[in-house]
# Entry
Amino acid sequence: RKPSAVKQPRHSEEEAAAIIHTLWDPQKAVDPQLRLLLLIAFEARFTPILQATRQDLIEWKPVQNDPTRLLEEEAWESYWVLLPKDVDDTQSNKRRAPIMLPRWSNPGRLYAGQYLEQLWHSGFLSSLEARYLEDRTDYRFFPHDETWYTARFHELEELAGVSPVRGRGFRGLRRRVTD
# Structure
């Protein structure tokens, strides 16, 4: 991979860990849209996620003795699978792969599929999901622009005890976690 000519500030490993622990803690007052975005974004690139709609999501239930299961002791019974549309992303030629959102239930940690279902039942997505189930009216999971999510991310940093730095945002956190 060719190094970028622009050097962006990065989170240290300790800062990234503090942010992730705050994000995963269901007792912390993290903005629910940002929490969902980051829980999904650790699995894929941001551009297709920011443009994802409800119709891009399907439920997949593995059958007993399914050879596609990775481990027999997996704790989830099904996944939500996000199938991102091809979007205009001139900075990348990467393919839009399906994003698996496990429906795990684990005290002390949130998983994307589990959290998505919580938001459908009692969160900011509940009225949109009710309408979708009634007449299939599609909706975007993330209706705001990237600036809005960056501002919420800086609030998350402060909640985690990390000082926000100009030019350092949620995309850099994903890079720290995946690199």
Q: What stands out?
A: Strands lie at 57-60, 79-82, 99-102.
